[in-house]
Amino acid sequence: MISCGVVGEKAPPEETVLSLLRDEAKQLKSEGENMDPAYGVTANWEIEDVQVRELSKDESQPWGGTIRFRISSRVREPDGTTSKEEFVKNFEYVWDMALEGWTVR
Q: Across all residues in the chain, what is the average pLDDT?
């Protein structure tokens, strides 16, 4: 029987995919904190957790991952006051064997 995707290749080890997911978290943090000053918004993206788990049902996507951020933002209002907001944001990923990398779920 022939199937689509990569045949015979093994999934990378957990340490490798975890390191790559941490790199993804750092990139998301950088992008999230890089805001145009004209908007009057500043944001701090704190990486709270990066987790990898094995997905046993699908050989084409053997790993799942979660990046959790605590995001704090400050907005300068038109009247000169500052409003603050804080929330948690999760990003879910799967390791795609065909792409050889993480992809958003």
A: 91
Q: Where are the beta strands (DSSP E) in 1-105?
A: 41-54, 63-76, 82-96, 101-104
Q: Is the pLDDT of residue 6 over 50?
A: no
In this prediction, residue 1 carries a pLDDT of 35
Cβ-Cβ contacts under 8 Å for 62 (sequence gap 6 or more): 11, 54, 55, 95, 97
Task: Give the predicted TM-score (pTM) of the model.
Answer: 0.85
Q: Are 28 and 69 in contact (CB under 8 A)?
A: yes
As a whole number of angstroms, the distance between CA 6 and CA 39 comes to: 45
CA 72/CA 58 separation, integer angstroms? 36
> How is the chain split into domains, by residue range?
14-104
Distance CA 104, CA 58 (A): 16
